[in-house]
Amino acid sequence: MDISIIEIKKIVESALSEDIGSGDITTAFVVPDNLMANGIIVAEEDIVLSGIGVAEEVFRALDSDVAFEALANDGDSVKTGSNIARLHGNARTLLTGERVALNFLQRLSGIATLSRKFKVAVNGFPVRIVDTRKTTPGLRTLEKYAVRAGGCWNHRFGLFDGILIKENHIALTGGIAVAISSVKARVPHTIKIEIEVSNLEEVREAVQAGADIILLDNMDIQMMKEAVSIIRGHKDKNLLIEASGGMTLDRVKEVASTGVDIISAGALIHSAVWANISMDINKIKE
Amino acid sequence: MDISIIEIKKIVESALSEDIGSGDITTAFVVPDNLMANGIIVAEEDIVLSGIGVAEEVFRALDSDVAFEALANDGDSVKTGSNIARLHGNARTLLTGERVALNFLQRLSGIATLSRKFKVAVNGFPVRIVDTRKTTPGLRTLEKYAVRAGGCWNHRFGLFDGILIKENHIALTGGIAVAISSVKARVPHTIKIEIEVSNLEEVREAVQAGADIILLDNMDIQMMKEAVSIIRGHKDKNLLIEASGGMTLDRVKEVASTGVDIISAGALIHSAVWANISMDINKIKE
Amino acid sequence: MDISIIEIKKIVESALSEDIGSGDITTAFVVPDNLMANGIIVAEEDIVLSGIGVAEEVFRALDSDVAFEALANDGDSVKTGSNIARLHGNARTLLTGERVALNFLQRLSGIATLSRKFKVAVNGFPVRIVDTRKTTPGLRTLEKYAVRAGGCWNHRFGLFDGILIKENHIALTGGIAVAISSVKARVPHTIKIEIEVSNLEEVREAVQAGADIILLDNMDIQMMKEAVSIIRGHKDKNLLIEASGGMTLDRVKEVASTGVDIISAGALIHSAVWANISMDINKIKE
Amino acid sequence: MDISIIEIKKIVESALSEDIGSGDITTAFVVPDNLMANGIIVAEEDIVLSGIGVAEEVFRALDSDVAFEALANDGDSVKTGSNIARLHGNARTLLTGERVALNFLQRLSGIATLSRKFKVAVNGFPVRIVDTRKTTPGLRTLEKYAVRAGGCWNHRFGLFDGILIKENHIALTGGIAVAISSVKARVPHTIKIEIEVSNLEEVREAVQAGADIILLDNMDIQMMKEAVSIIRGHKDKNLLIEASGGMTLDRVKEVASTGVDIISAGALIHSAVWANISMDINKIKE
Amino acid sequence: MDISIIEIKKIVESALSEDIGSGDITTAFVVPDNLMANGIIVAEEDIVLSGIGVAEEVFRALDSDVAFEALANDGDSVKTGSNIARLHGNARTLLTGERVALNFLQRLSGIATLSRKFKVAVNGFPVRIVDTRKTTPGLRTLEKYAVRAGGCWNHRFGLFDGILIKENHIALTGGIAVAISSVKARVPHTIKIEIEVSNLEEVREAVQAGADIILLDNMDIQMMKEAVSIIRGHKDKNLLIEASGGMTLDRVKEVASTGVDIISAGALIHSAVWANISMDINKIKE
Amino acid sequence: MDISIIEIKKIVESALSEDIGSGDITTAFVVPDNLMANGIIVAEEDIVLSGIGVAEEVFRALDSDVAFEALANDGDSVKTGSNIARLHGNARTLLTGERVALNFLQRLSGIATLSRKFKVAVNGFPVRIVDTRKTTPGLRTLEKYAVRAGGCWNHRFGLFDGILIKENHIALTGGIAVAISSVKARVPHTIKIEIEVSNLEEVREAVQAGADIILLDNMDIQMMKEAVSIIRGHKDKNLLIEASGGMTLDRVKEVASTGVDIISAGALIHSAVWANISMDINKIKE
Known about the structure:
The structure is a homohexamer. Chain A is an alpha/beta fold. Chain A is 43% helix and 19% strand. Chain A is built from eleven helices and twelve strands. Chain A has helices at residues 5-20, 25-30, 52-62, 91-121, 140-149, 167-172, 176-186, 200-209, 221-232, 252-256, 267-270, and strands at 36-43, 47-48, 67-70, 77-78, 83-90, 128-130, 163-165, 193-197, 213-217, 240-244, 262-264, 277-283. In chain A, α7 runs parallel beside α8 and α8 runs parallel beside α9 (221-232). Chain A starts with a helix and ends with a strand. Chains A and B meet through α1, α2, α4, β7 and α6 of A and α1, α2, α4, β7 and α6 of B.
């Protein structure tokens, strides 16, 4: 994974604490302490996998002796019935970690699977589908990782690492030109300036004011096309054009056809349902 | 809310840290420090509301001087276009808190809205729809709260506060009778013993062994009916009957008609998509 | 141990931070860095052991290379002078970890030893002695574990995983029947409903209202007997009867003789004094 | 209180999380949200009070609107039946905070009450009774505070803020003189050097080597007297003499009579049982 | 301040815990509990102020009743002997918070003061002096804030919010072109791509490969000039030019004269010594 | 190191989180996952080394498989160009950990190097140079460790482990005698009592009142000499004399010549600039 192991360990430990609390009483009362078992994680439907390393870390956090063999990689298309991972270790550990491991895998693979559909929908167009800040509180790092596993891209992570001047910001200050010049005076030189616009006049104003990225928010297809045409007229500025607002799977191809560079879709994350993945745990035959 | 304020504050603070990091640079660079503003949170579709108190806590954590007036309560059906809350306070605070507040509201109201649909689907039947442990890691307390706001009920919270002997447990030990008697010997007397069964023989065994709750897992309707009939034959045991396994909105009414007491549906949470809710922030007219 | 390794690690690390702070200056200034030593943990009086796994974790958290061999298990009766564990490792680690390891062992074994006495006191009666929520703040998981090591049982863990309607609750609402029906409407189906009563009228009311467990609080022996007789008259309801209030070692046998199913005694934990356990550390003979 | 409010808040919040978890379900299901109540905390036996400020902080952490009026101060002798504090506030808050507040008060007052007995036992002698590092993991700050409330004194807090060269340290290095001179070369000048000795030869060696405090460990009364006599012979060195080892309430007066300056007794904390304190919560009469 | 209040509170609380631990024993033993006092914070040399809001938060965290009046703002030049802030409140609180408040103020004002000197040194040149990731572990948010207070700018915050392909990265892969194209394929569109080069050939390669920012590392003045000339030859690419490597106060003017856009100087932070600031606390005259 | 491994791990993990956040995107996008590399840490100027064990822990926290071989010890004088440590491991890990490891090494070695200069400046005098509480918030444990590595000593760690009655304390109470006797009545017997004085009258008063350490604050050399003479006149009291106030490298020798025992100098830490240390990372030749 290309995400920090320090962060993964924190998220995994916190998820385990949430589920296990003081202890897994069913397992403790039913299963002998020293019993060994095999486990197998299986795709119950066609999915794009994401979170296999997180699942491994779940069992590792409980017991460093568990053997975990991934049989597919994040980003792989996995067919119904295919095995995703094989485990071997203390039976109690496998039982106690099962649900948390699956919760990560199912949530993340759900996002990756939907992201892949978005990506496929715009195949052939020079466009990126990116996520937004509409993510489940506490899980943004992983959810954005799953978007990448699905083949899409990330927008900024949060309020601290990107500039996006939105309608509300503009309304509260003296307009587009003032907002952009205020930002230019202070923003680190490593970050591009993006501004949200909703009509063609604002598009022109944003181009003049020196934005790096123009976000066409909630425009209809026709207006998007005109906006693209206006912006492309300023070739020397190398501007990026992003479109947002209700970007569903049905719509993205048409939007891509307008010539925008980026389509941002909260739906990648907020409309993803869980992928169906299960785990079987078996006593080792003697 | 009927959940601990200590927990809510922790979850909210952690969500704010995730999104804001070292600071909201767009707002800091664009909006004057002392500007006041009004905000309004609006339902963009018909929803069942959940999380209004969490949203309030988001703004309160940033600035105790923000005025937040809820215009609807958790559990209320809110129509498209209705106002959910009115805010007044420092413009920067409203802008910085907006997304996190909405992320909670949209995720939780999404769950509440779907839960309400499940509840309505079994109207008239003496049955409870309950959730499962299939929840987003880190957000279980709030997601289970949203299920209640939708009018459904909760199953156990985690591995520590309930006994559910699953197929995997039984497979790893000496069978249903042994498992139940092991648990009986050790479980706190305040907790009921639930066991998962998948055929009628197991049903009979579980009843004999003294389970309190029989979970009919992945049975077809016919088998469920027979299982109910067998279990109801032991009136003096006051057993509860729960059904689980692929409980979609389409199926629950038919399952309810089998006479089970409880239907557990992971879908309440894992198949909920976000409710569409937005926030407008306006300068105060002078 | 049947408690979560995640929780144990947190408690142990926090205890080590409390005692060691920035560093064990005596040891650092006196003992060479690379000296190896043997340690032996010894019972200085007859005890029931509890916490051996926690003690091991204390040394492991400081230095994963320490060898720790337990010579007795939690729950074992250990005689004066018997060895409990043998250690081998860096001399500084043994010296630095000694007090924290003993603090856990002495506190937990103190509880296990007293719990065993309670258990023995009611030998032959079909009754459980259980603990209460009267535990040392921050140490409940381990203290309740020690109660089990002593051979007694646990009541609910906290306010979140059990229903106990107490006198104060009833006084603040409309009485027993209302309180129980309010709870029934909302409590997860996995949790039994317990209610505290202090006279026979309340006993009858609680039975009628459908409680699962009747807690006879601060009744004298005669009243307890009558209460038991009333409740056992409702055989079909399978009610559990618990007695509480000043349950000292002297009294529990007489209380057990009334026929109650459970005796809850805060004394298991709040009146336990530390078991006398010591540790010797010796240079390795060359 | 003379302890850091930052630490108290952390301990209190952690204790509340432990007990309440996701929520106090009994109270939430039974007691209306907006009900107000009065509470009264009462001594059920003669105690020395400790922890009243912690109890206040418990309720304050749940709800800043609770009124908490202390009717006695830490260190006060409180008679059976006396009121310790009066509360007024939301009924749910009083019910939810009750047990945690009492757990602190009962544990700390138990220690203060026992400490007071030790202090009284040596009345008239120019001696201090001090505690040790035998404290409940996680609660040392508060337990040492309770010792002071009882009228005794504290030894060092942990391994970081005092030098105590114990038998084990000496055994692992080249003897008393070497150990003391190693420490002298490195210890901050603000900290005295204490060394544990168990016979008169070691006493003389420790005096020669330049210790500031001589700890007479597990000596009988006669040997203590001789040790005191030897040490007092070096008037110019201003040495402090401490005695330790099985210091029970029965023995301390005789030990004090030997002329030692300090008696360290783990029993102040590890042999204290909880003080009996209760809380009543009543609906407000209209 | 334009940084997150959530982060400031965490840093302040952690600093107070570090200094106060279980309690400020000198103050607790010497100063009466209810004494009120005035405090005044004074510049003992000419400084540029930074951290006044953090200092206020220090006292606020200890006691919300302290009155803190700032007499200067972050970024102000403050002359020797000038008052920076006036305080009024409980004497113990002022004494206990003094050192931590000053530690923040002195460290941050030291950085702001040095940053101002760098800024002044390049007055008249169209260049930004920016900081680096050479910051004190744990204090980056505040140290970068102090740089801004001094009138300079920030580079990226950490490894997560900016792309800087350094010599080590290039050495480990297939060269500049490959590295840049790998990044382009995956980096969020909101982030510019910066690459470090050390000779003119690399400059040309970086320009060709499509970098957004060229970092001239450890070049002499002559080579910098040639590099600038090469890069400015590609006007349509709008490239930014940054210079780094041993950027001391003595050198920056000459570097600025080469025409680079940005000079990054670790010295702003790692070579700043503390500003001299003190606090007086006085009894209130009756 | 003589500091707690528990604390080091916490500080290191927190520093890594600060720098890496969700992930090191440059490295992830540029460097293959399975590439191995060698690293070498080099002194770029003459330094006294401190923090080598912390640097090792940085890489260990990211990846337990990294081999880290220290080539010098803390406290060693290391010449320009000398190698400090050799590393071997995953190339991504070396790149990601580099800056944090160097930040610790450079800050701590900067302090050790300056401390060494102070120590050398008073060579031949029976005096200790000690640090103060003027330390970077959050880093006190390590900064005080670096002072020791440089050959100087530590004063108290914080407000909890030493008594220092300062001018402000005295001003707020009834004077020196009262302050000292209040402290004597309550302070643990393991801690010496230090008091700050600023003229000869106060010196006499402090001696009379029974202080253990007299801190001569901001006196000129002549007054210091007289103060020393007065205090040494009371030989039987074994008093320590400390001098403080603007103790720069230029002045300490003259101050040492007055005969004081201790010179406390905030400058050891607050005026230390970073040592110049770098790290090279190379592909392994095949």
